Amino acid sequence: MTSFPDYLSDALFSYGIDTVFGIVGIPIVELADTMILKGKIKFIGFRNEQAASYAASAYGYLTGKPGVLLVVGGPGVVHALAGIYNSISNKWPLLVIAGSSEDTNRGGFQELDQIALLSRYVKFSSRLNIHTVEEKLYNALRQAQLGTPGVSYLDVPGNLINQNMDMSSIKPPISLSAVKFQPTDFDLDRVARLILSHESKSILCVIGKGATSSTQEVRKFINKFQLPFLPTPMAKGVVPDSHSSNVSSARSLALRSADLVLVLGARLNWILHFGDSPKWKESAVFVQVDTTPEELGHNNASGTSYSLCGDIGQTLNKLTPLLRAFRYAGVSQELLKGIQTNEKRLRVKETKVGPLLNYNCVYAAVRRHIVDKETVIVSEGANTMDVARISFPTEYPKQRLDAGTNATMGVGIGYAIAAKLANPSKSVLCIQGDSAFGFSGMELETASRYRIGMVVLVMNNSGIYHGEEKDLKTLASTALTRECRYDLVAEGLGCCGFLARTIADVEHFFQKALKIAATGQPALLNVIIEPGPQGKLSFGWQNKSKL
Ligand SMILES: Cc1ncc(C[n+]2csc(CCOP(=O)(O)OP(=O)(O)O)c2C)c(N)n1
Ligand SMILES: *[C@@H]1O[C@H](CO)[C@@H](O)[C@H](O)[C@H]1NC(C)=O
Ligand SMILES: *[C@@H]1O[C@H](CO)[C@@H](O)[C@H](O)[C@H]1NC(C)=O
Ligand SMILES: *[C@@H]1O[C@H](CO)[C@@H](O)[C@H](O)[C@H]1NC(C)=O
Ligand SMILES: *[C@@H]1O[C@H](CO)[C@@H](O)[C@H](O)[C@H]1NC(C)=O
Ligand SMILES: CC(=O)N[C@H]1CO[C@H](CO)[C@@H](O)[C@@H]1O
Ligand SMILES: [Mg+2]
User: Where do the H-state alpha helices sit in 226-323?
Assistant: First the structure.
């Protein structure tokens, strides 16, 4: 006989789960304590379930196995909805385990019908009992990881914790390996003919984060046919940014001039302007390659005819021999000129330093001290993130995390903790706006407690989008406290804090911070930058560049 906590801990470990994120309470504290006692699974206890759920969500993406979140019922689950929603939106594997009250409908402690709350949204949800633990755990992990990755939920009633299981009938876990599938020869053939007929027209590959697991195949395909490409923000590095076919520096022009667009593992959502004019040509033809049939033809009711449903790597491998006769001219002169002009413009911005620093010059200074291969960058904020996205090219996949499709503020420190745990030998740099920092800044204490070394850069313009230049009679909705010393907050939470006002400060403290982080202590640089352009904020999804 073995106790339920013992069994769950061993079973999770045998499925390859090495880390569990969460916050304990009655009744699940015994589950976390058992994991810690057994010493195989790391338990990372956070300060708020929201940040813990974002960390578990990103850990699932980075490791390819379900991230696991352990929380109490009721309010614990409610706070964790953030990460649950995040994993659903991003198609990242996540298993949530929560305690639940046995006193259903009697006003029990933290009583909430979590299964009813979640079952509409998650792939699998079920309440455990002592006879079904084995089977339900298998199904929960299987559903989270296989097919379209997503969220599974397991409800642990308090009275289960003290029950014992008969181990003689327990079987070893079944390995979870995805079944890869390919489009039919018929579909592939039609797409191949379509591509061949565009030999002398303008072709563009858009690479999304859905392609990160097919990195080698995508690189081979782009290399072989010299197709111009641009990655979505989290797909950077699937093909190295230094590749001569990288046209992201002339993004608008590349979109506007494309006749045929191969969309590999990306969604035609607002980030890609819904595949619509005026950002794209009215006549542009899109070929989407995706494992999720529901994504195909999205925002293009009349045109699902060229979609390829299947594993991206296998699809490209099958498409390659069909394109034997294909000779593409490479990046056009017009695009090359656009790239040069924009790159030059960016470099000029980076050298312009006024009385107060700005995003571009700070990022250029930081970039000088970053070793790309060894650095994961998380960025979060509005301007802070938009400028960061174009300031740190990378050669490696899965090294960029940010607010993503849902433009979610609050993911930063949780993602950074997950990134460091998933890549212990790499440095993690978390670049946040002062507003973004506020959503989960307290988790610096979590990072410090577990000695998860990272460097946090807070870009302080004293506001959301921009700071106010002078004191107004009324407080703007975007305003944040001017003399807010995030560096002192960090010190109070067990990290090192620095205040930087000049480029020399940034370079000096950033190098210092890297050294401190390498010892396991998080370090934060509060970088004072200009408040930025004032005036009314405007939003134009169709015309604003978002990569
Ligand atoms: C969960 C959530 N709440 C609110 C917002 C609205 N929002 C968009 S960006 C942003 C913060 C931007 O300010 P900051 O992080 O300081 O970056 P800056 O643009 O000032 O560099 C906010 C609150 C959001 N995207 N997500
Ligand atoms: C390639 O793309 C990145 C953005 O992903 C950009 O910052 C970089 O400057 C580009 N490089 C070239 C040579 O175009
Ligand atoms: C959108 O519709 C057009 C016209 O039918 C078609 O040529 C194109 O392939 C469609 N795009 C997608 C992504 O389905
Ligand atoms: C979040 O992203 C998903 C996937 O693109 C989308 O379906 C959903 O509508 C988004 N929700 C919000 C609130 O942005
Ligand atoms: C984008 O379009 C909107 C409405 O069409 C407009 O008000 C706004 O000024 C435009 N923004 C930019 C950056 O062109
Ligand atoms: C702590 C600190 O110095 N905060 C600064 C943040 O940035 C604004 C300017 O954008 C300054 O006014 C604040 O003093
Ligand atoms: Mg700000």
Answer: 251-257, 312-322
* CA atoms of 542 and 540, how far apart (whole Å): 5
Query: Residue 51: what are its φ and ψ, rounded to 5°?
Result: -65, -40
Domain residue ranges in the chain: 2-169, 185-335, 352-542
Q: By the 8 A CB rule, do 130 and 97 touch?
A: no
Which letter does DSSP use for residue 466 in this model? Answer: S
Q: Is the pTM of this model over 0.85?
A: yes
Rounded CA separation 49/51 (Å): 5
Indicate which atom in ligand 6 lies nearest the CA of residue 526.
1
Range 352-542 classified under CATH 3.40.50.970: yes
Nearest-angstrom CA–CA distance, 288 and 274: 13
pLDDT digits (tens, 9 = 90+) for 289-334: 999 988 888 876 445 568 999 999 999 999 999 998 898 999 999 9
Q: What residue owns the CA closest to ligand 3's atom 2?
A: 303
Do 185-335 and 352-542 show the same overall fold? yes
DSSP 372-405: GGGEEEEEESSHHHHHHHHH---SSTT-EEESTT
Which of the ligands is closest to the CA of residue 296? 3
CA-nearest residue for atom 13, ligand 6, is 482
368/507 Cα distance (integer angstroms) = 8
Structure tokens at 22: 């969460």
The total number of residues shown for the chain amounts to: 547
Q: From ligand 2's centre to the CA of 404, what distance in Å?
A: 19
Strand ranges in 141-297 using DSSP code E only, listed in sequence order: 151-157, 164-165, 203-207, 229-231, 260-264, 285-290
The model's pLDDT over 121-171, given as tens digits with 9 standing for 90+, comes to 999 999 999 999 999 999 999 999 999 999 999 999 999 999 998 887 777
- Is 273 in contact with 538 (CB distance < 8 Å)? no
Task: Give the C-alpha separation, 27 to 298, whole Å.
Answer: 44
Written as six digits, the tokens of 193 are 């003919």
Ligand 2 centroid, distance to 386 Cα (angstroms): 14
Q: Which CATH architecture has domain 2-169?
A: 3-Layer(aba) Sandwich (3.40)
Query: Does any ligand 1 atom lie closer than 6 A to the CB of residue 407?
Result: yes
CATH no. for 185-335: 3.40.50.1220
